[in-house]
Specification:
Blueprint (H helix, E strand, L loop, with lengths): L2 E6 L2 E4 L5 H15 L6 E6 H5 L4 H8 L2 H12 L7 E10 L4 E9 L3 H11 L3 E4 L1
Parallel strand pairs: 2-5
Antiparallel strand pairs: 1-2, 1-6, 3-4, 4-5
Amino acid sequence: MKRCGVYCSGIILAALTIPLAAQGQDLVKESLASFSPQTVRVEYSRLTKLRSLPNYQNLRQRFVGPRLRAMEESFAKLGVQEGDIDEIVLGWRPGSSMMELEGMVVGRFTAKGVSDRASAAGISLATTR
């Protein structure tokens, strides 16, 4: 199966059409295969589940820092809102002055829509397996 995605602030947006349970497994495997060998920490979140929690807004305020907000803004430029992202895998690796963030997401957005917005914004595209 071909998966389309774009690199955006170190994140790959992948539009997948497989069931959610299998998506999570595939997403983690694909993320680990694509992350740098220097990655020292990996986190997986099923955002659809987190958003259903009664205290989600409190959790979100506590854990979404400036770097994740910057990623949200990058996604928004591609037409992908927070509510469109179902799952995310984040990885951290040492950078020159701070930890660098990389990751992959799956959700409810189309490869064509992301591609069109990326072209308009001058963001380069990549294809994932």
